[in-house]
Amino acid sequence: MEKPTTWSFKKLVFDIKTKILRPGIFKSHLKAKQDLRYKKIDKLNFKRRKRIVKHAYKNTSYYHKKYEALGSDFRIRSEKDFLKLPPVTRDDLANNFERLKVKNANSRNSRKVSSSGSTGRPISVLHDMRFPYTVLQWRILSWWGVRPYQNQAYIYRYKRPFFKKISNTWLWWPTKRIFLSGAEMDLKSVNKFVKKINRLKPELLQGYVDVVYEFALFLMDNDLRIHPPKMVWVTSAPLFENQRKVMEKVFGAPVCDQYGNTEVFTIAAECPRQNGLHIMHDSVHVEVVDNDNNPVPKGIIGKILITDLRNKIFPLIRYEIGDRGKLLKTTCGCNIPLPLMENVRGRQSVMLRTPSGLTIRGEHLTILFEKYLHNIREIQLIQKEDYSVDFCYVSKPKTDEKKEVELILGHLKTKTRNEIIIQPKCVDVVEKKGQKKPLIISHLK
Ligand SMILES: [Zn+2]
Question: Ligand 1 center to residue 129 CA distance, Å?
């Protein structure tokens, strides 16, 4: 832990810099705090939904056409009206990029981001730079007692360009931010990074699930220890419960799970009580629906639809993000007035298929595997064109994984009704697709 005097100096510099250099962020930061204090957060969410629908209808040719069928005097007056809006699929997004933009979109008020394509077809969206999404991240950090001006450690997938490193150092001075890239996970670089962590004692360790997990395993294998941060923040892929346990043990700190993706960065995140993910209800509207797009009750799994309440450049309304999940009936017990959803497990688009047409979704397998992964580190199922499956696994060094392999194999065979050949294969690394390591890779036509 840093001394309070260093803290307060950092806070002072941070406040001044933010106020002067990024007044927009500072104002939104204050506003976001107020939104949360807003007693009727549901009302605020609904008000913003009405506003974004009206805005999208008026300013984009895509939504204008899409909602025209609802009648020229169509307005959102109730939840029922909102449910009449037809969802937007990933394919719609891929095919209508230009038509989804508002007329005044330009390079100053928006930034184009593209998904890696590992979860299906690659797609691009524009983020609205006028809404500083950083404030949502600060909000989550504050739940965990981490302030943005405290030292932080990051693990990226790639090495950062030299100039970016330098500018970042200046931008954040006197706060120290240190980086390691997944690409340089060797003893020399990791040792250096560990020494830095132990000297600067960052409050936060942040990165993509796969590289942070790799870092944890590396520390474990090489008997290295880091000064425990207050919290570990992992993003970008569903988190296995087993991975979380390993990370929490190795880092000596809780791992905060969050839900977000390229299209909408911050959708929901855990508070320290870890009773589910709090939805950023003032910024994002999350729905769970069945295959006919009718809402399912809380506690039931369905397709997730996202409405970004803040993106006025590239509106996403009832967007079918390609994930399945559920809203929770329970409340958290903390004082955060934001509703809860469960962690998203696995992607909707990837599944195993059998010749008779049976499908097994990734999320079911994730839950199944969690129970058995002790001596196995990573799993990947590769389904070939002839339906046969390579069950690839990476085992921990000096352990006997045979029993686990047998158990998992047995379950996979039962789930696929013995219709397909499944071949276990011990591998050194699992395949990457884009930047991710998918659980299922399907070569089926
Ligand atoms: Zn909570």
Answer: 28
